[in-house]
Amino acid sequence: MRVYADSSFLVSCYLLDANTARAKAFLSDHDGPLPFTALHELEVRNALRLGVFRQVITDEQAKAAAAAIDADLRSGRLVRTPVKWPAAFRATLRLSEQHAATTGTRSLDILHIASARALRMKELATFDSRQRTLGAAAGLTEAL
């Protein structure tokens, strides 16, 4: 694995939005699995629930997306990947100190970048421009 997909990318893979076509095109060209951390688990599944709350998607659509995630976990397209969280949080603090005032990145976005670095990923797949900027500053190349 060399590409770290953040939650914005993964949500676009499972729900129809403005970035879905771009996400699916990337996936069709990318043959390796994508890591799926506890942070992904929380953020992606919570995004589905928030979509229902905001009435952007139906409960049935959220359940279908969750089932598709589960299927991709079973098939190996997504791979549950442990992160050494204490080290990742230390890196998050450093990244925040060095870059948050100039990039405007939020805590969980910084944690994604720190997780990608902790997992020794080389590339970042994201639709979040501030996260992309931070990823570049942290040495990740843009996968999209």
Descriptive key words:
single chain, Rossmann fold, mainly alpha, 144 residues
Describe what you observe in this structure.
- The structure is a single chain.
- The chain has one domain: Rossmann fold.
- The chain is globular.
- The strands form two sheets. It has a three-stranded parallel beta sheet. It has a two-stranded parallel sheet with strand order 2-3.
- It has helices at 7-14, 20-29, 38-53, 59-75, 85-103, 107-118, 129-137; strands spanning 3-5, 34-36, 78-80, 123-125, 141-142.
- Helix 1 (7-14) packs across helix 3 (38-53) and helix 5 packs across helix 6.
- The protein is mainly alpha-helical and 144 residues long.
- The relative contact order is 0.19.
- The protein contains seven helices and five strands; from the N terminus they run βααβααβααβαβ.
